[in-house]
Design brief:
The chain is mostly helical. The chain has 43 helices and 13 strands.
């Protein structure tokens, strides 16, 4: 630097120049030094942006004036502004702003300019190895920014060109800061900042990538993957392209670090109401539940908007619960429907959390324990709608520290407030102002202003009930040409007490008013849907109730949903609001109701029978009654389709059976017959109650054969629960009936089933006696499948007694019969029996081969638990045969199956593997 240049720097040493915000010059004492006018400020900014470098006169002229504003002598005008600027800066010796080389140069130490200081700090941060040093340096640099750079200047090309450049430098510095903070493990703290930035800069992929990394580092893997889906959507909407390489790389890293198959984020909320108004105070109280409270309670009368408030707020705070939202209608006040059993809700919640049906524990208390364990470390919102009692809520309430359970109820549920410290929020009717807001949001304020008197009368008649106001608003919006006073007349035509009950609220008139607008076929379907006693109505069930084709029913259901007279819970699943159900029940004539319910039962029985025989093909079919020609059914054709159909109707089974009791006992019994194996295979709740209902129906029908069959099925349930004495008692009663009827097949079936219970009790000799009796009958009646089953059972019982030669002989006889019937499952079970007997007699290699045959067949048929049991037995024999490596493979294969099923036998296998590792 020349001596003259050094003098210029020294002359400005007390000044500080600021471009990162409003353009300012501060004195050594920190006071803002006024600039003479706007143009000198622009000139100063242009010189500072090229500090210690010459800016050509032509360039400065272009910065200061547009073509139309150019003075007659621009150079002279420029000299005047330079002079004024020198005076303002105290540059009396002209050493700070120098003239030369065809332009002007502002000489100063770079540290005097905030922009150069910022750039220096960013460079040093980029060179620092320690993340803490990088954070400190770049935080100091970012603190120099006071807002948009060059704020307050209207300098045309200068600001158009430089502001975006400087803003980009600022964004890059922020990116560098976030990288350093993430390296320090500050992931949780940067998430809110990055969330705000991606909203402001939706196409800046680096911020999205950093947000995903921060979410993943905070344990929110599902949210990180969801963020990738969101940025992909936005980039395609805004730019028409997908994510770039950096985002793709981060996504790949997340997939590699995350078990995506088990990462399920449930979003089970029903569709939000299209219009929501008022409730500001209540929304604030709900906000106040976060983050400390774990149980919130919205209470109030029917139709007051409890569900709407809960769903509206839940959607507002969805981001606070990155692990999802669970929702269930507990049906606490639905007419003619039992309140939902928490034991039936928990499996649906577990499915929503990603637990496959075949991994559900059998016992209800074990399912609840699994549910609570899954939520322990998650941030999930659980919405329990229409709860009737505290006992409904307690098993379903989330216990995780980051979870919240929100309950709606007409009752106070004081027990929850007293013992679970639930935060109660009382919901009352809307006041006149809020009612008008809700109605105006639906039809428009201008429409209401056209007839203020009628508007006030309509609001008064609705008595502040949100449901009534919503229905009224829908009618007004759909008829834009009608005058408001005509709606008042429509309401007046109904009884005056239609909207005035003891507490001033009743929606019957509103329901009837909406109902009268329906086409006849829609009105009929609306009435008949109420005849379904279950919590959910499938499309097939709706079609059966109305006696119309499924396709036609689906279209009519869509119209009712659009009219807000039906709620769509999910694909092909619907529900009636309890008030609408009550109203629809009143509309239906008794004969019309009975015919619809009988069609529903016919649909369930015929479809269920086909599905049941797919699950158990060798089951003795039952005779079905004729089907109403109006019932359109689509029969399942595979086991998977059969299970899917049973799964869809499972939530309604007990409600349907209870409604059928004493009303359609024959169809009730048949429906229990169809669902028995499904409930047994799946371990679903309700098996025993269903069978008891079937038994009562059989008694009312006076049908002894049905009573005997049902008692055998009840015995199966007792056996699964290890209630041996109860199982024996039911079998004895069934045998007594079969003997009274001279029913050889019934006697044989009962004896065979009773023998299984006796064997489980260790009474193998008695089991052999009972099975031999059954075998003699089967030989006489020619029932080949049952005969093979009896022979195989005899082989097993003799094997349990150590009489292995007899066991092998019976098993070989059974195998011959099964092969004649081409029964693969029969081959599997007899191979298992044979293997046990061969192993007992010391023929270990033959036993292993027989077990291998059973395993291969059972695995191919998807019988997972039986496969695992065979593998465990084979592993034991392999160890005895001196094949530890093969045994280890078998144990591990069994363990994989049992762990996937969450079966308690997994512990047995782990101990066996540990013992094998230790060498015996």
């Amino acid at each position: 630097m020349t001596e003259l240049e050094q003098r210029g720097v020294n002359g400005s040493s007390g000044l500080r120049f600021r471009l990162l915000g409003t353009v300012e010059v501060r004195s050594a004492s920190g006071e803002v030094m006024p600039l003479p006018s706007h143009q000198p400020a622009v000139l100063l900014a242009a010189l500072l942006l090229r500090l210690n470098r010459t800016v050509r006169t032509e360039d400065l002229v272009d910065v200061l004036w547009d073509d139309e504003e150019l003075p007659s002598s621009p150079r002279a005008a420029l000299q005047i502004y330079v002079s004024r600027l020198r005076t303002a800066l105290g540059d009396t010796e002209r050493t700070m702003i120098r003239t030369g080389d065809g332009g002007y140069t502002l000489h100063a130490d770079p540290e005097q300019l905030d922009l150069e200081t910022f750039r220096s700090l960013v460079r040093r941060a980029g060179e620092a190895e320690d993340p803490a040093d990088r954070v400190a340096l770049i935080t100091e640099g970012l603190a120099l920014w006071r807002g948009e750079p060059l704020a307050g200047l209207d300098a045309g090309a200068l600001t158009r060109e430089m502001i975006p450049r400087l803003a980009e430098e600022h964004l890059q510095a922020q990116e560098l800061s976030f990288d350093a903070r993430l390296a320090l493990g500050d992931a949780a703290a940067v998430i809110p900042e990055l969330t705000e930035l991606v909203e402001r800069y939706p196409t800046r992929e680096r911020f999205w990538a950093q947000l995903m990394r921060a979410q993943h580092a905070s344990g929110r893997q599902a949210l990180a993957l969801s963020t990738y889906a969101e940025v992909s959507r936005r980039l395609r909407e805004i730019l028409g392209v997908g994510p770039g390489p950096e985002l793709q790389r981060v996504h790949t890293e997340l997939l590699e670090a995350t078990d995506t198959e088990s990462m399920v984020v449930p979003r089970q909320l029903p569709t939000a109401v299209p219009v929501f108004a008022g409730r500001t105070e209540h929304l604030q109280r709900l906000d106040g539940l976060l983050p400390a409270a774990h149980l919130g309670l919205i209470i109030g009368p029917a139709g007051v908007g409890k569900t709407s408030l809960a769903i509206h707020w839940a959607r507002q705070v969805a981001d606070t619960f990155p692990d999802g939202i669970l929702y269930a209608d507990l049906l606490g006040y639905a007419p003619a429907i039992e309140p939902a059993d928490p034991a039936a809700v928990v499996p649906r919640f577990l499915a929503g959390l990603g637990i496959p049906a075949d991994r559900l524990p059998i016992a209800a208390d074990e399912q609840i324990a699994l549910y609570r364990s899954l939520l322990a470390e998650r941030a999930v919102l659980v919405v329990l709608d229409n709860a009737r009692s505290a006992d409904q809520v307690r098993p379903l309430a989330a216990s995780g520290s980051n979870c919240l359970t929100l309950v709606t109820s007409r009752n106070e549920l004081a027990g929850l407030v007293a013992t679970e410290q639930a935060e109660p929020i009382q919901l009352d009717v809307l006041d006149a102002v809020q009612s008008r807001q809700l109605l105006a949001a639906r039809v428009g304020e201008r429409r209401l202003q056209e007839d203020a008197q009628s508007t006030e009368e309509l609001i008064a008649r609705c008595a502040g009930l949100p449901l009534a106001l919503s229905l009224l608003g829908a009618q007004i919006a759909l008829r834009p040409r009608r005058q408001l006073d005509s709606f008042v007349e429509t309401l007046s035509e109904a009884p005056l007490d239609a909207l005035s009950t003891s507490d001033g609220v009743d929606v019957r008139t509103i329901f009837s008013w909406s109902y009268r607008q329906l086409r006849p076929e829609l009105a009929r379907l609306f009435r008949l849907l109420a005849q379904h006693p279950g919590a959910e109505i499938t499309v097939g069930a709706a079609a059966a109730l109305a006696g119309v084709p499924v396709r036609e029913a689906r279209g009519m259901l869509a119209v009712l949903v659009a009219n807000h007279q039906l709620v769509e819970l999910g694909p092909n699943r619907y529900a009636l609001h309890d008030l609408l159900r009550s109203y629809a029940l009143e509309l239906c004539e008794e004969q019309e109701a009975d015919e619809a319910f009988e069609r529903l039962l016919g649909y369930l029985v015929h479809t269920g029978s086909a599905a049941a025989l797919l699950l158990a093909p060798r089951r003795d079919p039952v005779e079905l009654p004729g089907l109403d020609p109006g019932v359109d059914i689509v029969l399942p054709s595979t086991r998977d389709e059969a299970f899917a159909w049973f799964d869809s109707e499972q939530p309604n089974n007990l409600a349907v059976l209870r409604a059928a009791a004493g009303r359609a006992d024959g169809l009730l019994w048949l429906y229990v017959w169809t669902i028995a194996d499904y409930l047994d295979f799946r371990g679903r709740p309700g098996y025993m109650e269903s069978e008891l209902l079937a038994l009562d129906a059989a008694v009312r029908l006076g049908d002894l054969r049905k009573q005997a069959q049902t008692r055998r099925d009840l015995a199966r349930g007792h056996m699964a629960l290890r209630q041996w004495d109860d199982a024996i008692r039911q079998h004895e009663l069934a045998l007594g009936i079969a003997e009274e009827l001279d029913d050889d097949a019934g006697v044989a079936h009962g004896s065979l089933s009773q023998a299984r219970v006796l064997s489980r009790m260790g009474e193998h000799r008695q089991a052999i006696e009972k099975t031999t009796r059954a075998l003699r009958i089967y030989e006489r009646t020619g029932h080949a499948d049952a005969r093979a089953n009896a022979l195989n059972n005899l082989g097993w019982y003799y094997g349990q007694l150590g009489e292995f030669e007899a066991a092998v002989d019976y098993a070989q006889q059974a195998l011959k019969l099964y092969e004649e019937q081409d029964s693969e499952y029969g081959r599997a079970v007899v191979s298992d029996t044979m293997a046990f007997a061969l192993a007992g007699s010391g023929r270990l290699h033959e036993a292993i081969a027989s077990y291998a045959t059973a395993v291969a067949i059972l695995r191919a048929q998807g019988r997972r638990h039986e496969t695992a049991e065979c593998l465990m037995s084979m592993a034991e024999v392999q160890e005895r045969a001196g094949q530890p490596d093969a045994a280890r493979v078998s144990w591990n294969e069994a363990l994989e199956i049992l762990e996937a099923m969450d079966h308690p036998d997994a512990g047995v296998v782990r101990r066996a593997l540990e013992q094998l590792r230790r060498g015996g």
